Amino acid sequence: MKTIHYILLYIGAACALTSCDSGDIAEKVYTVDEKGYTVRMTAQVRGISEWDGTDYTLAVAGFTADSKFAQVQRAVPATLDDDAPLSITLSNLSDDIATVELALTNSLRKRIITLATINMSDYRDYGTHDTIRLDLGTIDVGQTGVLQMGVFDRACIQCHGANGRSAAGLTLTKGNAYAALVDVPSTRREGYMRVESGNAEASLLHLILREGGEDLLSHNHTEILSSQFKSNLEEVSAFIDQWIRHLKPQPQE
Ligand code: HEC
Questions:
Q1: pLDDT tens by residue, 117-165
Q2: Distance from the CA of 160 to the center of ligand 1, in angstroms?
Q3: Which of 15, 63, 149, 187 is the most buried (most CB within 10 A)?
């Protein structure tokens, strides 16, 4: 599990300047709670405009432990220029928020894929008004970037690219996955492309990850995916399919 370790705690500083104790901060969101937590996520993002006009939103979102639906979320504006600084704050987070995530959500605010996570239980003991900060640096949050961070980095590169291992000669590390997959013939199943742009159902990637595809390769990839994404398997599979469908065949140079 890859977590990001840029978390800093700012104790008290913000409260000295503003009236944290007055209750003024309790405006909207969902719970007015004087123990509310504040989380600020910062990053420089690229590719956010690729979500414009889709069913998906990239958002900083708070989830309880037992629901797939965000209790509170703020979207990364799809109009943000590449590399423009981004800062999103969620405040008045109540104790039942278990995680704050940079996540792709759908129009019902259901979690599709998580890119970064703050476990709120790590911070509960530090007092009431600390701002929990997570800086993600520069990240590619376009469609391929989200697939990379949310799926390949988490579930695939241990066999496909990290530590010099590339099972089936397939490298799925950052910056390599697209060229290794898209419109590249399978080395294992004749007649298939690893990914056929625009056509999910014909793509080997789709077939090996879904139920019924267990025996297509010597390695059961359906099991790999389902063991990594226990609570959002369906959403991740649907996302991969929509990623394949959004690809346009490239003109040959
Ligand atoms: C535990 C190791 C392991 C993991 C994790 C793994 N793979 Fe594989 N993968 C393999 C092996 C081994 C093969 C070759 C299987 C064969 O020869 O039949 C393979 C083959 C493939 C192929 C077919 C390549 C071709 O040329 O036909 C694709 C596509 C693929 N993997 C995608 C993925 C994706 C996507 C993930 C993450 C969701 C993933 N793999 C995770 C071991 C792994």
A1: 999 988 877 665 678 999 999 999 999 999 999 999 999 999 999 788 8
A2: 7
A3: 63
